[in-house]
């Protein structure tokens, strides 16, 4: 586990040393993209790296994903679509691009699917149970953009990629794609389905991270544990990169000013650190971070695509899903307009449906809130497929959240946000005598691959500047180092006890000690602790047990030494985000009206991290 206070103190002491440590890279952003670079450098054994995030690690987009670890059927479809557009075999008014632009888009998306297949395999093999396989069924509807046989062909090709990568690893595997020719065939397989519109379906297997934020934490923790005294690998949450510039002293390096965003009166507000290269993994804030230099270019390099998720359950859904593994299958209606993923999840002992939609254009990265029609769209999409007993309404929704992804704005021509290639980009940018790597749209699925790409470039740059050779990347076969009791408190544990206060307290302790939990809102909303508070009332409807919320707050306050006003501030920060996201549902109101009892428990340990804001 990283120790932010200790490392910030170390950095404060190091800044006065001459020449002092020049890190191989400084990474701005501790989401999936930054974590991938840090871990890849650490895997080389002889690289030093420093990662900072102004909030908790994985607290932004990387905890707002659909949790799919997938090459992306949709991206394969886009590759074909753009290919057909290039040769004028199809028309699409949303995409007005030249032959070369369309061909490039097709090539990028095809690459994304091919290598994404490899990444899914590697994450399942090395992720220590965090990434698992799940079955999905794509439903072909009357207004689907492709015909049933075309979808079957596409998914078979998608699966063939999986088979080929499996054979490369000498583990033979054969296709598991299955075609359901009509709705009767589907109904025989999935009795909870009931839709007159469905024309058929195709079953295939894909990957799913049972918790996106934990995957990021695992990568960061793993990287830090692999550092050494000579080549330290450090990651500091609640530390912001506020300014950077290239200075020519002693061969030249970046000088980066870091400001602490946690309370520690004995530490300076800012420190400066040196680095040979700079990695900008600030996600949606990539342009803002890039321009924090005395010579900003003021350019906008990305556009945003927003997605929303709702999580819903009731006693019937929870019981049926736990009793019948056949029903634990993701539903993917092939809509004409926007893609929806309707997947069952089992977390913290609770079965629920996560409904996800993406691809709405968005402008302000600092204001990302769900809209009412998104909630309606998702409820409608799910309810249109299932029978009466499985339908959900606003009263079944216990959590809503949304996120944005930055997409490269330089695709040229005219193109709708949902059609921009989802392949990540690394924009290598000279700055003074050094190089900055801007990482655009790194998905959870490709974070290891993108990390290796950037770390490889850093290795070349370090060699060019200093003559020092970094070792090769070894993340391909490197398992994530586990921590004590990880399995016992894993969010996806199959037999996780529910409503057991002692187990809950132990779980909170585990997350504070080993999973870097330092803010109440982050633990409940980003790590998913809120699911521990979901209960069913006498009618089987879901409800939020405020006693559980209080228990978690008390335990965190005791462990992290929060006084009463800090405890209140932590609650307010959680309630503000949760209730705002739940505006269009019923449970948000109940939490809004709750106020935790003001009596703080006695502090049991020294504060670990005390961020100013949650
Ligand atoms: C709705 C939605 C659904 C998605 N679903 C999937 C999916 O199912 N599967 C998949 O593979 N991908 C999915 N993605 C994509 C994936 O989640 C993101 O692309 C990925 O998490 C981005 O990670 P990141 O590190 O680039 O950004 P982030 O996770 O946002 O991290 C950037 C970090 O930089 C920090 N930061 C910013 N400025 C500074 C600064 N100046 N100093 C210090 N820190 C700073 C922020 O605090 C933040 O933590 C989805 C994306 C969205 C929006």
Q: Oligomeric state of the chains?
A: single chain
- Counting DSSP E segments of at least 2 residues, the number of strands comes to 21
N-C termini distance: 19 Å
- Uncertain runs are 605-614
Q: Which fold name is given in CATH as the topology of the domain at 4-62 and 213-301 and 421-466?
A: FAD/NAD(P)-binding domain
Q: Give a short account of the largest sheet.
A: 8 strands, mixed
- SS-derived structural category: alpha+beta
Percent helix: 25-40%
Our count of helices gives: 16
- CATH class membership of the domain at 4-62 and 213-301 and 421-466: Alpha Beta
- From the spread of the alpha carbons, the general shape counts as globular
Ligand types: flavin-adenine dinucleotide
Q: What value does the average pLDDT take?
A: 92
User: Any guess at the CATH architecture of the domain at 4-62 and 213-301 and 421-466?
Assistant: 3-Layer(bba) Sandwich
Cα gyration radius (Å): 24 Å
Offer a concise description of the structure:
This protein has 614 residues and is of the alpha+beta class.
Write the layout of secondary structure elements.
Blueprint: H1 4-14, E1 22-28, H2 32-43, E2 49-52, E3 68-69, H3 73-86, E4 95-96, H4 99-126, E5 131-140, H5 148-168, E6 178-180, H6 183-189, E7 200-209, H7 212-226, E8 233-236, E9 239-247, E10 253-260, E11 270-280, H8 286-290, E12 302-312, H9 315-323, E13 330-333, E14 340-347, E15 350-362, H10 372-383, E16 397-408, E17 414-415, E18 425-431, E19 434-440, H11 447-466, H12 501-514, H13 520-526, E20 534-536, E21 542-544, H14 546-560, H15 564-581, H16 587-593
Helix pairs in contact: 2-7, 2-11, 3-4, 4-5, 12-14, 13-15, 15-16
The structure holds flavin-adenine dinucleotide (FAD).
Residues 28-34, 52-55, 59-62, 64-68, 240-241, 281-285, 289, 307, 358, 403-405, 441-445 line the site of flavin-adenine dinucleotide.
